[in-house]
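Why do we bother with holo predictions? Because pocket geometry can differ from the apo form. Keep that in mind while you read this record for FE3-S4 cluster.
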Amino acid sequence: MQDLLLDKTHDETRQGEAFAPAFNGITSNRKHFYIESYGCAMNFADSEVVASILQNEGFAATTEPALADLILINTCSIREKAEMTVRKRLTEFRSIKRSNPGLIVGVLGCMAERLKATFIEEEKLVDLVVGPDAYRSLPGLIEEANGGQKGVNVLLSREETYADIAPIRLNSNGVTAFVSIMRGCNNMCSFCVVPFTRGRERSRNAASIVAECTTLFNDGYREVTLLGQNVDSYHWIDEQNDQTVTFAKLMEMVALISPLLRVRFSTSHPKDITDDVLYTIAKYENICNYIHLPVQSGSSRVLQMMNRTYSREWYIAKVDRIRELLPGCGLSTDMITGFCTETEEEHQQSLSLMEYCQFDLAYMYFYSERPGTLAARRFADDVPLDVKKRRLAEMVALYRGHSLISMQKDLGKTFKVLVEGNSKKDENELHGRTDHNKVVVFPKQHYKKGDYVMVNITRCTAGTLLGVPVN
Ligand code: SAM
Ligand code: SF4
Ligand code: F3S
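The structure, written out:
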């Protein structure tokens, strides 16, 4: 069994999607770029910044790699498997390069940052290697590559947030959008490669975030997801108004754009989510009652080795507080099985924590050692692979039961659903989401994308609520 990814909406489930804005085909004699993205939502949001930079340079997007002059692959390093997927994909681009020797192939994102120039040595077809903070240098690097000069820019920055670049929405449903509010991470969880690939944490100018969300709303979007590795540590000093904008304040500013604009956010670190954030969620109907609160392990000893800076008891108290202030709030988590030295008893503690918390969604992975991380340097990766996978399978089985209970609890209830589009299975049906992030499918009738519809839930599957609209 591979890492287990159980929901198509979560950041890490998206593997290699090709993106192009709907209006761009091969209709002009402009140069075309093809971009494929892997990893978390932040990477997908970055691809939209890259698309904007390239469009300003006169490029148009295409969804056909064979028709492109420039192929970009925006990569993820979070687990070994993510990197292997990218390596395999690159071999598939080889034949395109053979038939189009002028084609430029660029590697962007976290793998570019981690492997730097060695990428160009290891993968002969790669012309460009560009890290997450260096996308502004793409036009210059592309020009040099056209002249036969391979290029690498993996400089990390303490300031770059791309705040002034209006992202081009790629492959958008026109209703929901990601908005990056910060970059990097200062947390240094011992298993995690992100601080090395994304650099120091920095927050984006609050006014530029509100402006981007306002434009999205005016363009017909009805939901924004505010993105960061640790959104609760968002922090911006607004000198003009002599105020500090915290995450709670930022959410409020975005929620006030319109009651018709839903606000989501991801990811919250349990050590940083404050009562202030919870009160703000409670205060505004359009801030969704859904929190992704990764715990990683149910053992305080393992959490300490992971450098998560909270204990099992502290996490449980946080969950209790969320349920007290936000009854019915959707809750999801991330879990890792088989971290260095994890015992059978500690694995059981992870299961009992899940039993206690009854997560609506859980994203579960077995531990994958990442070169250069604190854990790789300090601890032996000593839980055998078959044990890691067996523990993961046990965890997934437990979670499936919780997830079904969570769906069944909603039977007979009525929810406000934001319509995102036609159901994939039946064009006479629509799909959308409740405020606590559950997918709902219901008959289309006269409703359309972007509408809010009250839906009474009549049936459910393991991952979807099925219902009928009510007046
Ligand atoms: N910033 C978020 C947080 O603090 O929880 C998570 C970011 S990370 C991109 C997403 C998830 O990947 C983590 O929550 C963790 O469960 C998983 N992950 C990270 N490094 C991993 C590793 N080396 N092996 C397995 N899973 C890993
Ligand atoms: Fe990685 Fe921890 Fe930062 Fe999340 S908070 S990105 S798990 S270092
Ligand atoms: Fe995201 Fe993967 Fe990088 S999860 S931050 S793209 S390592």
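Residues 222 and 261 are 5 Å apart (CA to CA).
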